[in-house]
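User: structure tokens for this one?
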Amino acid sequence: MLFTRDRNFYRTLFHLMIIVVFQNIIAYSINMADNLMLGMYSQSSLSGAATVNQIQFLLQQMTLAIGDTLVIIASQYWGQKKTKPIRTFTGIALATGLILGLTVFILTTLFPREILMLFTKKESYIIQGMDYLSLIRFTYPLFVLSTILMAALRSVETVSIALKISILSLIVDVSINYTLIFGKFGFPEMGTKGAAVGTLVARILELVIVVIYLIFADHKLKLFCKDFLHFTKEAFSRFFKILWPSFLSNTLWALATPIQTGILGRLSADAIAANSVSTTMFQYLKVITIGEASASAVLIGTTIGENRGTTKVKEYSKTLQVIYLIIGSVLGISLFFLRIPLLSLYDLTQNAYQMADQILLILSIVMVGMSYQMPTGIGIIKGGGDVKYMMYLNLISTWAIVMPLSLLGAFVWKLPVPMVVLLLNSDQLFKCIPTYLYVKKDKWIKVLV
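Assistant:
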């Protein structure tokens, strides 16, 4: 039976997925708005902020590993309706995240120039980046804490507050950025530093609102009770045993991403422009896949925690995989047909336009594969408690296959840019086979609580 007859399954899945998707779209729109306004202000401002955002991207992936670990454990406890252990593990996650956020804050305070020089050697970009970093570094601990708290809420199926916070954050960030970057309404023209002010205020607001919600409005977690900071050696050990594979995998993937971007950057200016435009469109549709993965992880973890047996978990798994393929096919077809009208919005050279069109054709196919393997790996397998499989798969595919092939394709075989893009994204296709074969087994179903 491909589709489960359990109506509660569909109600829970689509409720979680729709809200998380909209939240991710809004969060991505914040970055897009920042880039657009800084790009309108000056190229050096945009490039300086983009350089600093490499730090944010690395921190984000590390933080997501902590949040995902919390969701994997807490959702199983939520299936048993036990909130006391969830509070304990949330406290451990927050302590871990705070150490991470403060470490990045201290390093960027003591060695700002040295860190930025790891990403660029151009002095004008470093100067603008240091201006931006002087304020944006204060957002790092705030971002980590907010993300983990919202992960704790997601694990008990509370997601609407995160969407509302994201909408408010978008309004505040864009309003302040517009006012301070360009010096509108009598305020000083601050350029890059103005963008940092907008992000800092938005991050403070996010944390304050989620804490207020947890104290006064949340009736599930009741987080700030006496057992919130009641850590035990056993709890720490269990948390870090699940955390380290995700943390390692996310960190190495985050380090590989700028290298992959750099491969295209060394080919031609048209290649950079074509890839940038194509990736922007691709990312907007990718957030739907990320939403599927997040919702599935909570659903699978809760089902395991309810101790309803492996038969029910596997039944849900089959239905989820069919849903992934259907949604992935719709996304791929949408990208195929939307590519021409969307490309017409950009002022590109003829060569860059043709490259972007060819890249989008490739990404239309990649979208289908990614929409299957990513939520299956993260939402079902990882959400089911098996955290090591995705680590091994990602490390082997990225560092042993994709990176060597892409380097050879770009600099030895001298392949056309669209073919290099295909090699860079090839893992989204070939990972489908081992992921499908692995999920058919029962090994990924692990009771962690």
